[in-house]
Specification:
heterodimer, A: mainly alpha, 5 helices, B: alpha/beta, Alpha-Beta Plaits, 16% strand, globular, disordered N terminus
């Protein structure tokens, strides 16, 4: 009886230590990777339009959903730099290549794609939406 | 873009109607000579939703619409990023490519009168596209502008079949050269938005702005004082296929 109990306890301890390590490492990976790319306008700014980066990471899709219906159905367009909009995200976060040309945000290693590959969430937005800031 | 020749019988006008229309057009010219069709839109306040206080519409003077002029179509292409305004759709046939607005040439074989007119989404009050849409993607804004919600469009193309004006197009291939304000993509139907993105900022549609002949007037049909309303009140105008009782937002004078 004592031995079985000890075994159980040991397994539980091992499990909790391992899973704890796993979660910690995930957190480290998550916090360590910076999706803000050098060369993008965002890199030169102190914070995003939503200053809480974690909040933005978790909830940007909600913001975009809300905004899309407002824009399309109600005609509420964004005007300033500090308003939330998909075009605003792209304008700020698109990086440039060696030739000074914008790189699409849905390309491998770019702002949107980096996380979306990691979490295996397909990026449908850019089936229709432009992937680089408009220069003209 | 290619012009479409529409034969008399294909335009769904009986001889009697066309002759009647032609005579009305003549009267319109006499009533209002030399009036420039132009009006700035009233900007709604930033951040406010559109309301049914406005109903946006167009008045197109067929007598001023010049033969061979394609300015409105070109302006639409540049503004909305289709046709010559885009590097996309290289693999589609001409009849598959997007066509938001087209110049239509009409000839009456009896009188041999020929005239041109731009035809785009007529922004009906009772839009057949919306009736047949199985997902609610074809919708109408409060201010009367008909649009496609690409987020829920499944590309069934019922609306293309239902539209009496051939106003809608289907995108057959993946695109990458869209305008930032005008998302477009494979598998969705699209059409004239009456330049809603411009109207929301108090500007007039690109086609109206580009017309050098003053053949297009944009304005608020609900405001009896607006230039388009006063004009409609003073001269004869027609809807295309008015027998369908769609109450179109786009009206024509001179046909």
């Amino acid at each position: 009886m004592n031995i079985r109990l000890r075994k159980l306890l040991a397994r539980f301890l091992l499990f909790s230590v391992l899973s704890g390590l796993g979660l910690m490492s995930m957190n480290l990976v998550y916090a360590g990777a910076s999706e803000v790319l050098s060369g993008s306008r965002a890199a030169s700014l102190d914070s995003c339009v939503i200053p809480d980066t974690d909040d933005m990471r978790r909830n940007h899709m909600e913001l975009l959903f809300h905004k899309r219906d407002q824009t399309m159905r109600q005609g509420i367009r964004t005007y300033g730099d500090n308003e939330v909009s998909l075009n605003g995200c792209i304008a700020c976060h698109a990086a440039k290549d060696d030739q000074g040309q914008y790189i699409p945000v849905n390309e491998e290693g770019q702002f949107c794609q980096t996380c979306h590959v990691r979490v295996a969430a397909k990026l449908d937005c850019f089936d229709c939406h432009r992937t680089t800031p408009e220069t003209n | 873009m290619s012009q479409v020749k529409v034969e008399f019988h294909q335009a769904d006008l009986s001889k009697r109607k066309l002759l009647k229309a032609a005579s009305l057009g003549g009267a319109a010219l006499a009533v209002a000579p030399g009036i420039k069709l132009f009006q700035a839109a009233h900007a709604k306040p930033d951040g406010q939703p559109v309301t049914d206080k406005n109903r946006w519409g167009l008045l197109i003077d067929v007598n001023r619409c010049a033969d061979g002029c394609n300015d409105c179509v070109d302006a639409c292409q540049t503004e909305n990023g289709w046709g010559s305004g885009s590097t996309d759709e290289q693999n589609s046939r001409d009849d598959q490519k997007a066509q938001w607005i087209r110049k239509v040439s009409v000839k009456d074989p009896q009188t041999r009168r020929e005239f041109n007119m731009p035809v785009m989404c007529q922004h009906c009050e009772n839009p057949p596209c919306q009736d047949v849409c199985p997902t609610g993607a074809s919708f109408q804004r409060e201010d009367g502008i008909s649009m496609v919600d690409r987020h829920i469009c499944i590309g069934c193309r019922y609306c293309m079949m239902a539209c009496p004006y051939k106003a809608r197009s289907f995108v057959h291939e993946a695109l990458s050269d869209q305008r930032a304000h005008q998302p477009r993509g494979k598998g969705c139907v699209e059409s004239c938005t009456l330049c809603a993105h411009r109207v929301d900022k108090g500007k007039i549609p690109a086609c109206v702005e580009s017309c050098q002949h003053g053949a297009m007037l944009f304005g608020d049909l609900n405001d009896p004082q607006s230039p388009i309303s006063t004009k409609l009140a003073s001269i004869p105008s027609r809807q295309l296929r008015e027998d369908l009782k769609l109450n179109t937002g786009v009206r024509y004078t001179g046909i």
